[in-house]
Amino acid sequence: MAFEGLTERLQNAMRKLRGKGKVSENDLRETMREIRLALLEADVNFTVVKDFVKQVRDRAMGADVLEGLNPAQQIVKIVDEELTKTMGDEAVPLNKSEKIPTIIMMVGLQGAGKTTTAGKLALKLKNEENARPLMIAGDVYRPAAIEQLVQVAAGIDVPVFQLGTDVDPVEIVRQGLAQAEENHNDYVIIDTAGRLQIDEQLMDELANIKDLAHPDEILLTVDAMTGQNAVATAEGFNGKLDVTGVVLTKLDGDTRGGAALSIRAVTGKPIKFIGQGEKMTDLDVFHPDRMASRILG
Ligand code: GDP
To answer: Is Hydrolase there in the keyword field (predicted)?
Structure first.
């Protein structure tokens, strides 16, 4: 990941304050204008930008920052803290069921990285918790989707429950859960169908799977490279399914950062993981404070 443009512009905006013993309201206004433009250019949601700028300005004006020692440094600190807050403050762990299996339902548009992320997550659980996950192949619309999941799972040595493409996905999930029960799997990861766009039929199907499976976690996978479209997708899925968390994929290819900075504030749902590459090990817990530091460079 490299939010080069954003990092450079934020640094430039704040560099101008450095070396000033005293920062005037005018200086602050100019800095805030540049920060606002930097965020908009990075494709951050307009309302998020507005709220962010207001928060930073209010804090800078309020706490005698302008008159205090090192005003520039204090403003950098405020920007850092507010970026962190905008992205959710704290890392939010995966929801876990008190009794096995913990059921994780993966949802998202086609191509967002759902199947890849399902595999990455299964591997992470295996490696970090010695878990024995079972994956369920619930995308019956593309034969290639099942094949892809089977391949991903084989690469990380995780079993897949599948009934091909001729059985209703809700029924597949029902039987898959029964198998997990029988085999005492501690996690079940359900891969579901994606589409190129949100449509009602898909949402109804996902809602039916949700009603049957009562997942502990509904993880929405969105592609960071699509910027504000990722945010709109997140709103669409969340409105229908009340997701519990977001996985932001392809951050390694994202050069702007708008999705990372907007999704939490717009949807109220935490980004739980970030995908930063195509390898099965390229999945990390999302830490808002670390991301803020990376953005500020
Ligand atoms: P699905 O249709 O949502 O199941 O998407 P896939 O899992 O098939 O992923 C679509 C493409 O995105 C594949 O080529 C993946 O290798 C790629 N991909 C997924 N996650 C990431 C990521 O974090 N970084 C990069 N660079 N590629 C990713």
So the answer is: yes
Which residues belong to the annotated binding site for GTP? 108-115, 191-195, 249-252
Q: How far apart are CA 160 and CA 139, in angstroms?
A: 13
Distance 116 CA to ligand 1 centre (A): 6
Per-residue pLDDT of the chain (297 residues; tens, 9 = 90+): 568 899 999 999 998 888 777 888 899 999 999 999 999 999 999 999 999 999 999 999 886 777 777 888 889 999 999 999 999 999 999 999 999 999 999 999 999 999 999 999 999 999 999 999 999 999 999 889 999 999 999 999 999 999 999 999 999 999 999 999 999 999 999 999 998 888 999 999 999 999 999 999 999 999 999 999 999 999 999 999 999 999 999 999 988 999 999 999 999 999 999 999 999 999 999 999 999 999 998
Indicate if ligand 1 lies below 6 Å from the C-beta of 114.
Answer: yes
110 lines ligand 1 (CB under 6 A): yes
Distance, in Å, from the CA atom of 98 to the CA atom of 129, rounded to the nearest integer, reads 15
Question: What span, in angstroms and rounded, lies between the C-alpha atoms of 146 and 141?
Answer: 9
The reported pTM is 0.95
In short, whether 275's Cβ falls inside 6 Å of ligand 1 is yes
**How many angstroms is it from 178 CA to the middle of ligand 1?**
29
The finding on whether 253 has its CB within 6 A of some atom of ligand 1 is: yes
Q: Nearest residue CA, atom 13 of ligand 1?
A: 113
Tokens 């992470």 belong to which residue? 124
* Cα 29 to averaged position of ligand 1 atoms, centre (Å): 42
The H-or-E segment that residue 177 falls in is helix 169-183
Nearest atom within ligand 1 for CA of residue 253: 26
Distance between CA atoms of residues 101 and 95, nearest Å:
12
Residue whose structure tokens are 């579901």: 192
- What is the 110 CA–ligand 1 centroid distance (Å)? 9
